[in-house]
Write a structure and sequence with these properties.
Blueprint: E1 5-10, H1 17-30, E2 35-38, H2 45-48, E3 53-54, E4 67-70, H3 80-83, E5 88-93, H4 103-107, E6 116-118, H5 127-138, E7 148-155, E8 161-171, E9 174-175, H6 179-189
Parallel strand pairs: 1-2, 1-5, 2-3, 4-5, 4-6
Antiparallel strand pairs: 7-8, 8-9
């Protein structure tokens, strides 16, 4: 059986620290040999090289066959049976907006007309959560068998907290988020 390749098309204007932390988490979850980062500026390639294959090219230029796009706006939901048809699973590397701005559809799906698009639920997830859910589906779980939590509150100190208004997969009863990202948010949001 061929291994799935998770292709992250970076769609932010910069390679923010937050993105790097999420991309590193993806690599840790699925393995560096199964991750491609596309549309990366030449000067940033070295930052992601430890976590997977990195290219300046956009996924739009790669001409991938047996690929699908994961897009919350897609008309059909990815199933284990449908996932067997594909090797490449393409994600928009986007820092989410609340409410969502449908950027995957506008910046990726509409340019890749020959590639089928699937959703993994209509709710906005972090890129690492989207990859994790897709991996679970590839490995035979139906979306309906996964548990989720909508929004996550991270306590900064006794008084302040930050709410992340996205959908998180529950793994052993806890929302899936990189501990490194939690530390980053706490440090970033700490009042001087």
């Amino acid at each position: 059986m061929k291994k799935a390749v998770f292709v992250i098309e970076h769609l932010e204007p910069e390679l923010w620290d937050w993105c790097i932390i999420e991309y590193k988490h993806i690599s840790q979850m699925v393995g560096k040999e199964q991750v491609w980062f596309t549309n990366i500026k030449k000067e940033d390639i070295h930052k992601l090289a430890p976590f997977g294959k990195v290219t300046e090219q956009s996924v739009k230029e790669l001409g991938l066959k047996d690929a699908c796009i994961l897009d919350p706006e897609a008309p059909e939901t990815l199933t284990p049976l449908a996932a067997k048809e594909f090797t490449y699973f393409v994600f928009g590397g986007i820092l989410g907006d609340h409410p969502p701005k449908k950027r995957t559809e506008e910046e990726l799906t509409c340019f890749l007309k020959d590639i089928r698009a699937f959703d993994i639920g209509k709710e906005q997830m972090s890129t690492d959560n989207a990859v994790f859910v897709t991996k679970e589906i590839i490995e035979g779980k139906n979306l309906s068998n996964l548990k989720f939590q909508d929004s996550l509150e991270i306590e900064i100190d006794e008084i302040e907290s930050t709410i992340l208004p996205f959908r998180y997969t529950l793994v052993q009863g806890k929302p899936l988020i990189s501990e490194e990202l939690v530390r980053f948010i706490k440090k970033r949001d700490k009042v001087e």
